[in-house]
Amino acid sequence: MTAHDRTDVLVIGSGFGGAIPAYHLAAGGASVVVLERGPWLTADEFDHDFKFGSSSTRVFEFTMGEGMNVLGGNCVGGGSVVYFAAMPRAPQFVFEREGSLGHRMWPKSITRESLEPWYDRVAQALPITQSTWDDVTYAGGVFAAACDHAGRTANPVAAAIDTDLCTNCNWMMSGCKFDAKRSLLLNYLPAALDHGAQIRPLHEVQRIERSPEGDFLVHYTVVDPVDYRVQVDAGVIEAKIVVVAAGAAATPVILQRSEENLGAMPPAVGRYFSGNGERLNTAILNEDRVRDVLGLDRGDGLAYAANQIGRGPSAASWDRLDGALPEFSRYSLEQLYFPPGFGTILAQAPDAEGPSWFGVDKKEILRRWQSWLTIFIMSEDDNEGVFGPPPETGNAERISMQMLSRGSLRYEPSANTRHGWALADADIRDILERDGLARVMPWTNEVIGAYTVHPLASCRMGDDPETSALDDTNELRDHPGIFVTDGSAVPGALTVNPAFTIAAIAERAVPNIVRAAQARGVDVRYLGSLPATARVSRKAPVTVTGPDGQPVTVP
Amino acid sequence: MDTNDGLTADQVMTLEAYADTIIPGEKRDPTDRAVAGEVSGGGAVASGAVELMLTPEGGLAGTLDSLAEGLNEHARHYTARIGLDPDPTVPPFVALAFADRVALAQELLAPGHPEQELWVALAMFSAMAWDTGAHMSTSDALASGHPGLTSMGFMPPESDGVWRFPRFSYGRALAAIHPRTTPRGDPQ
């Protein structure tokens, strides 16, 4: 057997699910290696640019499936680098959901109340800031005013953003140039490094094996920094504990591929995927009606015309987050921004005589793009997603050098899911078409199927071994020593942005991982500390050494 | 005849005609056959659709010749089915009138078409050329009057090439907050 690296804890992925355990385990004395398949970029490398090859394609991943497309981060810091940093806690009723199971989806030990202390820790560590109306952008404001006009309520949305540094450039999906977004590059990850953890970018884990001694051998390939289709190296790291946090579109694929050596996976691995019930509507606002009906004026002669200005979502309607309503009819409506491309292609022209998502009518609505208002539905889907057999490497077959790939996820929305979407679509029309404020159309699902920026539940927690892959400690059933701590552990749709809940569950999992490590002879303690926060994201500090002892070039 | 990275002039015209079906534009000159000239202003072609399709980063470049041939094959079948008399001097897809190009594209892009994924990919590159100009830097695209970004009213960056919007908020309460909002500002 060739020589290979050893570590106490090997963490796969550096988003919320990976960074949080990496920090605590390193702080507690364990040796920790984090393998991240994406590149390591910092503030000065985040571009304001749509050009292929800029940070917008380097750090972002668009994985097409059959009926479901997943958008997510692909870089050190994972989703925290590319997301919009909206951080509401999930409502109480979410934890009581049954979905179509006929019994509770979540472990009995996890409720909103029991999760509060873990939420509090994350809120302090990032930190998350409660928003006021002064923080609400024009787009959030016009949505809030329309909600009010329709007799609804609307709330400023808490965010992990330092608004003193934010320029409202709306480029945050390409990474934040100003370090205003409080991504993991500013807290858990640098703190993990300070405690000796290593983060190795462009290292894509392919499979996990058991060593003859009962430890784990984690096999990875090293990805070319420009053309992610090209593998430039490969290697193995031995670990006593493995934390899988590759994201809900990749974690189950790694486990599926590991089945040949590790033995059968629990039946819920690669099943019950949820897209968080997500769906988008585009409203094309009538500027005159915005001024006359809502009384809005920017002070520069314009009523709105501010689609481009802001920082993702800043206001949401929570009127349907009501536990008294039946399941599959509860959702939040959140004002959102997507840049041109992602944010325009699937939008449909109202009253189109020909095609609605391309052609003459589409071009006409694009001319009014600054008057667009995007409304994001987060509802209760039915955990319909199922992963097919894993591809040869990675979680999907790469099509483009960066960003675009095709995976094995299949998703056919059930009547329950479609019911929630229909209610939400009608609600948005009721709010925004009232008194001629706007024309509204949902994005088409006929071109690529459904889509989500919040993949969940593909390797979920629960109390029932048939319908959950993890127990309530986040340990993979029948495979002690493997923990899953990313969005795939969340049992189902949350009706709000899930990053805060994913992070809270990762915090909650850490004492369990520490106990498992101790049982395997690792000298580690759970300190319960929180990371020091940084103002500036840090350059990649490690020189990566390949299995043959040669350094591997990283950006 | 090679013109663009191994593509023939006919193949380029065919891809342009498809891009023009997705985001239509005005003819580049009176002899322009690929662009149907259905609407005013530059469309996907003038915004760089073929350049974007040809970028090595996109992953589509190696398949463009067969996509162009495929479009023409579908156009031949469409022409025969509808009973049209196409101009033989241009590729069959280019020979279609704009309305027929749209009708054929709708067939190819419809759920259930066996090649839907291919034609959706080509349509997305066409749309992205107009919406984002992703074959070139966004600052340069705006400075050079990129048709799509300009038509959309995409605001330019500050002089250092970075976007900042100091004015961003109406700055006042615009709705009652939900009655069950917690003191921290979360849903209950």
From TrEMBL, chain A:
Cited InterPro entries: Cholesterol_Oxidase, FAD/NAD-bd_sf, GMC_OxRdtase_N, GMC_OxRtase_C
* UniProt pathway: Steroid metabolism; cholesterol degradation
Isomerase among keywords = yes
Domain (Glucose-methanol-choline oxidoreductase C-terminal) ranges: 452-506
- UniProt keyword list: Cholesterol metabolism, FAD, Flavoprotein, Isomerase, Lipid metabolism, Oxidoreductase, Steroid metabolism, Sterol metabolism
Q: What GO MF annotations does this protein's record show?
A: cholesterol oxidase activity; flavin adenine dinucleotide binding; steroid Delta-isomerase activity
List the cofactors: FAD
The answer to whether UniProt assigns keyword Coiled coil to this entry is no
- Indicate the segments forming the Glucose-methanol-choline oxidoreductase N-terminal domain, all copies: 65-258
Picking any one GO biological process from the record gives: cholesterol metabolic process
Query: Where does the source fall among the domains of life?
Result: Bacteria
Gene3D superfamilies in the record: FAD/NAD(P)-binding domain (3.50.50.60)
> Could you list the residue ranges that cross the membrane?
none
EC numbers listed for it are 1.1.3.6, 5.3.3.1
Q: Which family is it part of? A: Belongs to the GMC oxidoreductase family.
Identify this protein by name: Cholesterol oxidase
